[in-house]
Amino acid sequence: MDQDKRTRLLKRRGALWTERASFDSHWREIAQYQMPRASRFTWTDINKGDKRHNLIHDNTAVFAHSTLASGMMSGMTSPARPWFRLGLADKDLAEQPGVKAYLHKVTQMMLAIYSASNTYNALHQCYEELGAFGTWANFIAPDFDNVIHHHPLTIGEYALAVNDKGVVDTMYRDVPMTVGQMVKQFGLKNCSTAVQNLYGRDTLDAWVLVHHCVEPRVQRDTRKRDGRNMAFASYYFEPGSDLGKDQMLSESGYKRFPALCPRWNVRGLEPYGESPGMVVLGDVKSLQMLQLRKAQAIDYQTNPPLQIPTQYKDQAHKRLPGGVMFVDSTGQGGGVRSAFEVNLNLQHLSLDIEDTRRRINRGYYADLFLMLANDDRSGTTAREIAERHEEKMLVLGPVMERLQFELLSPLIDITFERMADVGILPPAPKALEDMEIEVEFISALAQAQRAVAASGIDRLLGTVSQAAALWPEMRHKIDPLQVVDDYADFYGVNPNVIVPDGAVAERIAAEQRQQAAAQAAAAAPGMAKAAADVAGIDTNNARDVLNMFAGYNSPSPLES
Length: 560
What we know:
Blueprint: H1 5-34, H2 60-76, E1 84-88, H3 91-94, H4 97-116, H5 119-133, E2 138-143, E3 147-152, E4 158-162, E5 168-178, H6 179-186, H7 193-200, E6 207-216, E7 232-237, E8 250-254, E9 259-260, H8 276-302, E10 306-307, E11 337-338, H9 347-363, H10 366-369, H11 382-422, E12 437-441, H12 444-467, H13 480-491, H14 501-535, H15 539-550
Antiparallel strand pairs: 1-12, 2-3, 2-9, 4-5, 5-6, 6-7, 7-8, 10-11
Helix pairs in contact: 1-8, 2-5, 6-7, 8-9, 11-12, 12-13
C-alpha cells in the first residue's frame, strides 16, 4: 500500500462527504420543518437541547410523518406478533416433522433476540428516517448479553457508497464518543495521548470525534479466518491523532456487511434514496406560510392599527378591554378610529389550508394507515374493508419489497450468523445439510398482500359452489386440502397448526374404516333377520315360486 491507512481512509471519507454534499441542504430543510430533533451534520451537534421547532406553525406534517412511521412499524415489524418465519424452497422437505420443528424453534429464538435487544427501537427510528429523508443507516455490533446491538444513525453523520449492483456495501460515519466510552471500548493504550491525558485527569465526559469506516476489503488472505482477512473491513481511528500512521483504535472484519442501509426509493446506482418527506416539503412550507398569514389576518381584525389624536398618546392603556377613554368629539374627524378598515374573509384561506393538509397526509400515506379509524360510516362491509386494504398494498407494495430486500432480510441473515457464531442454534436435522434456508414474511402488511391472492380463491370457491348446483361434477375440480394449505400460507398460520398431508391421508383412511365398520354393524341385525326368515321358508313353496319365475306350472320339474 503506497499510503498509510489513515491517509487513505481520510481521503475516501472526504470524497464521500463531497459526493453527499448536494443532498445536505435538502435534508436540512426537511429536518427543520418535519423532524427538528433529527439530523447531525457536524459532530458537535450532539447532545444539544436548543429550540428547533421555531419554523413550525402547523404540525400536520409532524403528525403525518409519525403516523407513517408507526404504521410501517406495526404493519411490517410489530413486536406484538411474528412478522417472519424460516422455510425452505423444497416444500415437501419443509413439511417433515423434524425440519418443521427446527425452523419454527429458530424463528422463535430470533424473535426473542429482537425483543431482548434494541432492535425494535432501531426499526422505529428507521421508518422515521426513511419517511423523512429516504435513507437510513444502522451499524449492528455483536453483543454478549443480547447477541446483537444496533447503533442507529441519523441523517448527516454518515456517507454511503454502492457496488456495481446498486447494493450499499460501504459506510463511513462520524462517532462522537466520550473519553470514558473510548477507553472502555478500545482500551487506554490504543487511544491517543490527548485522550489518555483527559482520562488521567478524570475528564471522562469530554467529547472526542472518532471515524468509523466499513468497506469491502480489497487485499486479504481468504485462507485465513481472522478479523483482518474477512470480506469486510472495519476501522476505528482518531483523525489527526499522534498515533502511528497505520495504528487504529480498532481494526477488525466481518463476513458480511454489518450495516443496514435501506432506501425508500432509489434511482439507478445512487446511494441515497427519495422519500415522502421530499415530495411534501413544498406543501409543508406553504402550510406554514398560510397559517402565518391567517394569524396575521386575525390579528388585524382583533387588534387593528389605530389613528389616535395626539392628546391621547399617554392613555394607551385605556384602549385595553374594559378601559374608558373620554373624547371631545365622536363625529367626523374625532375620536379613535382604525388606520384602515380590515375585513378579511378567512373562509377561502381556511379552505386552502385544509386542502394543503390533505395533500400532506396523502403524501405520507397517513390517509391509508388511518382509513379505518377515520371512517365513521355505519354498515361498512367486510368486502369493502378488504378492498381498501388491497388499495393500501397497491400503493405500498414496491416500498415493502425494497425494505424486505435491503432491511429485513439482511437483519435476519446477520442475526442467524451471530447465533451460529456464539453456538446457540439448536442442532439441525441431517436433512438440512447443504440446504439454503429461506425467509418468509408474515407481517400484517405482508399478509394483506397475500390476502389479494386469497380473495381470488374466495371468488373461485364462491363461483364453483353456486355452479355446482347445476353441474355437480364441477366440485371435483377443487382440492379442499390444498385450499387449506394455501390459506395457511397466505395468512401466516403457525405451521404446527396444519396437519401434514401424510397424516391427513392416514386420518381419512381411519375414518373410512370406522364408517365402513359402523355401516356393517348397523346392517348386521337386518342380515341376521333375513337369514332367519330364509331358514323358515317351506321348501315346496319355494320351489313353486322359482317355477313361476321360470315360466313353469306346478308341480315343478325339480320334483320329477
